[in-house]
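Per reviewer request, we include the raw input and output of the structure prediction for the construct analysed in the revised manuscript.
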Amino acid sequence: MKNLLLFFCLLPLMALAQEEAATPAAVDTTIYDFADEAPRFPTPCETLDTTAAVKAECAQIGLLDYVNSRALYPAAAREQGISGMVVISFIVEKNGLINRPEIVRDPGGDLGIAALRSVVGMAREVRWRPAFKDGKPVRYRFNLPIRFRLEEPKPYVLTLRDTVYVEFSKPLTFTGNDGNLTAYFNENVDYPAVGEDSCSTGQMDVQILVRPDNTVSVQDIIDYNDLGTDFIFAATKAATQSFGQWSPAEYNGRPVTAAYDISFTFAPESAACRETLDNYTKAVQMIAEGQLLTQDSTTLDAGLLKMDEAVALFPMDGRFRILRGQARLDNNRLMGACEDLSLAKEIALINWYDGILPLICRETE
């Protein structure tokens, strides 16, 4: 009986001990500025049998190569002669992912946002080796300095197949149709019959390359209204048929390859589409008027209302979405900017805002 009584007396103690053992250890959420091992950008050195110091040196070189290849020098900074060092701060989480990037030093001229874009891209593409403290991975605040230096700009840019000049001693000139390029396209772009049933209407931007031998090729097409392949083919055909109707650009007296941007609108011709065409003309005018009004804070709301009316008429027009989205972004209307620019990317397949869209849209969550 005494032994049985002793056993029952011990039961509460045993249960308490089991409860204490089941209580999970406290999770360390501290963000450290110092650790036994700082986080490292991933490189092939991580697989080598070498010291942590050597791996850290490799990581630093790899990180700088990655960032320098993606942090493009902004046009605003070039025009204003601004250079200097940007510092981007971010947290390397225990799982190696990057979180909460922010600009902590910015010389101006959009250098800060250019550096931030490269880090946002890295957050999507790269998983770091985390920091370690007492043998365990920890959260770590990493400060990344990125130096921008002004260099003498080259008179050309390199594409996949061509050296395309952007500075000329003589510009590229259209000589056909008495020099009237707009009239040439109006006469030579055939509206595809497939579009008449749906009254497909919209704008395309075509960038062509004209080479010294006067051959013409299409470098890029932006289909703002997702008109489709028949319309893209019609635009491409008209552009390439302008072969022989250009006076090539020259640099230092020799002919060079140059690009030319052409913008035109596809408009249906059937009487059944007259209302659609009239509405599109009205919408284009409202977008232009709204764009002017949004440049003044006193008429901002009126300008955005004008743009709203145009978008209501053609909600899937990528160009309208871009113009309203940019106006919203310029005036810190981030939720609307996220909506417009995200949809424009889907419609027109543009990548202009890829660097900042994650930031804009995250601020609206």
